[in-house]
Amino acid sequence: MPDFGGGEEVVAVQALTQSAQERLRQIVARIERLEEEKAGIAADIKDVYGEAKSAGYDTKVLRKVIAIRKQDRRERAEMEQVLDLYMVALGEV
What we know:
The protein folds into two domains: 1-56; 58-93. It is mainly alpha-helical. The N and C termini lie far apart (57 Å). The protein contains three helices and no strands. The protein has helices spanning 18-54, 59-70, 73-89. Helices cover 71% and strands 0% of the residues.
């Protein structure tokens, strides 16, 4: 296994074939592009939450709604049952 920390086993660029080097460049470029897109989408989502807040919606609750809607209905129902059980056990309900 190569040691990229500067030891004797460091793999030189020449050890990669030309096609492997090009494939690596493509992969890195693709990841970088996706990271840029992800940052752009995150900024768009932040803007939408800002719009919701200025329209009077509670963004914390809105985020919770989004998280709940991502869950499978059966898993959500199971989680709610366990939550109710815990709340009753703690005397909160």
